[in-house]
Amino acid sequence: MKIGRNPSTGTHLRQLIGQAEFCEVDPSEDLARVAAVRQALGPQGKLMVDVNCAWSPDFAIEMGRAMEAQKLYWIEEPVATDDIDGSARVADALTTPIAGYETEMGLYGFRQLIDCGAVDIVQPDIAWSGGFSEGRRIAAYAQAHHKMVAPHAFAGAVLLVASLHFAAAAPNGLLLEWDQNPNALRDELLKEPLRLENDGTVRPPERPGLGIELDRAAVERYRSG
C-alpha cells in the first residue's frame, strides 16, 4: 500500500493538479490506514508499504518504529534513491526489512546499495536497470550477499511478462509486483493475458521468447504520436 503523501513531502505529483489537498494525508492517518489493512488481512497476510522515496531518514525511522506492531513484510523506498547512507541508517535502525530501489541503474548502483546495507530486499526494474543480462548480474550479486530479489514491474504487459520470467529464473526470486490499478496496456495488450490465480500465483508463458503475442487492435487503440 502507498503511504507517505503528507503535506511536507515534495516528491509526488500533487503540485500538478488543482486540488492538492486530495493527495495529502497526515502521518497519523497513514498509521491508521496501515493498522486497518493489517486488521483486514489478518496476522498472516503479507503487508508491505511503499513510501516512494518521500521521507527523510530520521522520519523514516520514526514512522518505521511506529509501524512495527503491524509486522510489515517490508518498507519500500523510504528515502531518496541516491541517499544510500540514509537508507542504510534506516535499515540498521528498524527490524522491518527495507526494499528498493526501483529506479537504480546497473550492477554498480545496486552493488553500492547492497554493500552499504541500504536494502534487505533488492528491487531492480529490468526496464531501468539494464535488461535481462544486467538484471541477472544484479540478482547474482544479491544472492551472494544472502538477499532476495523482488523485481519492480509497474508498467504494461510486456514488462510484466519479462519481469515474471526474470523472477522465475532467479534462484533468489522472492515475488513479483502485480499492479492492481486499471491499466489497459497491461490488461488488453496481450492476445492471451496472464492469469493471476486466487492464491497469488501466475504461470509464465512457455512458448519461445517472452511467450506472448500482442493484440494489434489494442496497439492501434492506444497508439500515440
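[next item in queue]
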Amino acid sequence: MHRYIEVSHPIQPGMRTYPGLPEPKAEVLLDYDASREHYRDQAEFLSASLHLCGNTGTYVDSPRHRYRQGADLAQLPLESVAHVPVVRIDARACPHRGVGAGAFHGVGIAGKAVLVNTGWSRHWGADRYFDPHPFLTAAACGLLVNSGARLVGIDSLNIDDTADLSRPAHTLLLGAGIPVCEHLTNLDRLAPEGGFLHAVPIAWVGGASFPVRAYVVYPAA
C-alpha cells in the first residue's frame, strides 16, 4: 500500500487565509429533504456552491499571478504539479525570518518540488499566523531557479516578505515558470527526500491562483 501525507489545509466557510481577502462562503442549492420530492422519495442528494478567492487555504500560484502574459492555471504543465519528486528543506532552526540560499546548498533540486518547512503552519487558525512570518530571500530563489526546481512551496503566510512590495520570490520563481505553493502544512511529517507531490489546481483559463488538496505519496516499500 502507498502511504499518503496530506500537506494542505481543509477549506471551511469563514476561514481566513490572508488579511483583507474575502473569506469562503458556502450556499446550499438543494438539500436532502427538498431533493426527496424531486426524486419521488427514491433518492436524496445535496447540491451546494462554494464562493472563494483563488488565494484561499493551500493554493498554487501560476505565473499569471505575477505576470500579465504569464501562463494561467490551465496552462500549467501537469509535470510541474503532479507526481513531482519531493525534497523537503528543514528551515525551522533558521536564525532569521528570511530563509537564505545556504539552506539549499548541497541539496539535489533539479526537477524537484522543493518544500520548505519553517514550522509556521503551527500557527494556522490563530492571529499569530498573520504576524511577520518566514519567507524565502531573493538569493534563495535565484539559486532555486538556477538549480532547476520544478515547484517551490512553503508552510507560511507568503513565500515573500510581505513588507517587501517588490515581491522578489514571486518575481523570480514565477518569472522562470516555476509554480509556487503557499500555506502548506504537515511538512515535518515528510522525509528529507523521496515521495511525490500532487498539488493540481483546476484548469481555470485566465486563472492566476487556486486552492489545491496537496499530498505527498510514498510508494510501497
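[queue empty]
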